[in-house]
Design goal:
single chain; 299 residues; alpha/beta; five-stranded parallel sheet; 13 helices; 5 strands; 51% helix; 9% strand
């Protein structure tokens, strides 16, 4: 049976850009900008569902589970990107948030023909990572019908995982296959069917929300500061010092000394300075507070 895309909003023509090919560069980028402005408004309608996904990610992390993103094409690349940004931003193990793209890592740079059409590949990619019931799987598909994602969601549910789906069409197949459907209709694209545009923007914004909210909830921030940032270059060393300065009000030299005394741990340095204790006591407090700086300082 031939695939029918006609009922999908993501495949419809946008009446506001019917003359796209006659527009000047300024008119084209203005049209894109106007359409992009519709994305946050569409997402706002689904904030409770996005918050639920973040809560499930928190619960997975707290029981030693992982967050999996899986998708094909642009959707898969966005999942891989968000996963890759978690270790340097939040200081977590690379295996804690995993991005899977149909066709494997090489598909990030070059399309792998036919990979997204395989349900079996979605299942086998999760099997290869030893999926367990403690994990949380988020399928990403702008169209909402990608077989690779459907296969992964079906397998995840059979294992006992909680599942969510991010799509840009309502009543999507992936939404029906998951425990939680996050279906954000951003409307037809400026360039018909080019879901790397508004749909991709919506997906990236939602992934930012899920990963950031869940990481903050497990103690990866104090106030709005990245207290578990990894210091892998000079810029990040300076950022770490700035975080300690912003959190405590000390001078740079004292911030540097505290970070050194804390073995490079920003959150330990902040706890030392604000709780008036040594590195060993700060580490003990943080352990008791499960890594939450505010609780460690108060406790």
């Amino acid at each position: 049976m031939k695939l029918n895309l006609n009922g999908m909003t993501t495949e419809r023509r946008n009446p506001r850009t019917m003359n796209l090919d006659t527009m000047t560069e300024l008119e084209i980028v203005s049209a894109i900008n106007e359409e992009d402005a519709r994305v946050p408004l569409a997402i706002a309608k689904k904030l409770p569902e996005i918050a639920q996904a973040a809560h499930w990610a928190v619960e997975a992390f707290e029981q030693g589970g992982r967050l999996f993103y899986m998708g094909a094409g642009t959707s898969g690349r966005l999942g891989v990107l968000d996963a890759a940004e978690c270790p340097p931003t939040f200081g977590v193990d690379p295996g804690m948030v995993v991005g899977l793209i149909a066709g494997g890592e090489k598909a990030f740079l070059k399309a792998i023909e036919g990979a997204e059409d395989s349900r079996e590949l979605g299942r086998s990619d999760l099997e290869a990572h030893g999926l367990t019931a403690k994990d949380f799987v988020v399928g990403i598909a702008a169209s909402g019908r990608t077989p690779y994602v459907l296969g992964g969601l079906e397998y995840a549910k059979s294992v006992g995982c909680r599942t969510a789906a991010i799509a840009c069409n309502t009543g999507s197949a992936v939404g029906k296959a998951a425990d939680l459907a996050i279906e954000v209709e951003v409307g037809p694209e400026v360039l018909t069917g080019s879901t790397r545009m508004k749909s991709g923007t919506a997906q990236k914004m939602i992934l930012n929300m899920i990963s950031t909210a869940s990481m903050v909830r497990i103690g990866k921030a104090y106030q709005n500061l990245m207290v578990d940032v990894m210091q892998t270059n000079e810029k990040l060393h300076v950022r770490a010092e700035n975080i300690v300065i912003d959190a405590t009000g000390v001078e740079r030299q004292e911030a540097r000394r505290a970070i050194d005394a804390a073995g490079g741990s920003v959150k330990c340095a902040i706890t030392m300075l604000l709780a008036g204790c040594g590195a060993e006591e700060a580490a003990r407090r943080l352990e008791q507070a499960h890594g939450h700086v505010r609780a460690a300082i108060e406790g």
